[in-house]
Amino acid sequence: MTKRFLLRYDTEAGASRGAKMHDFFRKVVAVHRAHAIPATFFCMGGAIEAREDDFRDFFSEVVDDPLFDVQDHSYSHIGLVYRDGKPIDVLRGDYEKSFAVHERVFGRRPLGTSLCGTMGSDGPSLDGFDATQKSRAELDMLVDLGIRFTTSSLCGVDGTKTFVNYARLGHPDVMGFPSGHGDTSWMKRRQFGDPMDYILSRIDERAERDEHMPVTLHDWVAWLFAPDRELTHVVRIAERARERGYDMTTHLACYHDTSLWQD
């Protein structure tokens, strides 16, 4: 099996943090190109709207570069697959609003979205889109809006390491991708000791087990809480992944490689 390494940025910094994010996009493009590091940027519609010039310039710079994959992260960081989540019409309205921003600023609708964590405000997360009638309807809503890949979320599946398709829910053409190892825990809050010791050791462990490896970065964590603004931690992560035999790729590339997720 070819082990895939999925590096992503949930790109969320809006008006409140926007003034502190000066030069983030310029630096991230330069670093990723210098080291040939593929990444997917799951952009929140509200952040795009709040910092439209920044996002427009970023997208114009990377639109034809296969290292950079630009997708969606809802409009307001709204949660799917939660026990006490918002009604379907509210969820749909949030995603429709985000996709409209993508179309206006980037000139296209996203094919993929990453699910948002709501820090307990919607109750506990469910085990998968197949857990309840409402969560099934949430996936149906995303597919109806044009989404073709999202976070792996099926009962009985380890969504941190497994690609899935959603055939059992009636959507065999929709991919679920592994998600996990968010830097809000290991970099911002430093819950596991030294951040780099932690994340590099996780890469080593996954590689030893021949498992796919996702790492979730956030634009504001990578810029405001990392050791420096040269993104050296991103380079170290990529170097370790390559040393351990990982194929670094984007989420869109994985979607097009149907051998990963089709039964």
Mean pLDDT: 97
Number of strands: 8
Instruction: Report the radius of gyration as a whole number of Å.
Output: 17 Å
The CATH architecture designation is Alpha-Beta Barrel
CATH superfamily: Glycoside hydrolase/deacetylase
Taken from the alpha-carbon principal axes, the silhouette is: globular
Overall number of domains? 1
- Work out the strand percent: 15-25%
- Percent helix: 40-55%
Largest sheet: 5 strands, parallel
Low-confidence sequence ranges: none
Task: Briefly summarize what is shown.
With 263 residues, this protein is an alpha/beta fold. 41% of the residues lie in helices and 15% in strands.
Give an overview in words.
- It is a single chain.
- The protein has one domain: Glycoside hydrolase/deacetylase (TIM Barrel, Alpha-Beta Barrel).
- The strands form two sheets. Strands 1, 2, 3, 7 and 8 form a five-stranded parallel sheet that branches.
- It is 41% helix and 15% strand.
- 44% of the residues are buried.
- The model has no long low-confidence stretch (mean pLDDT 97).
- The protein is globular and about 45 Å long.
- The protein has eleven helices and eight strands.
- The protein is an alpha/beta fold.
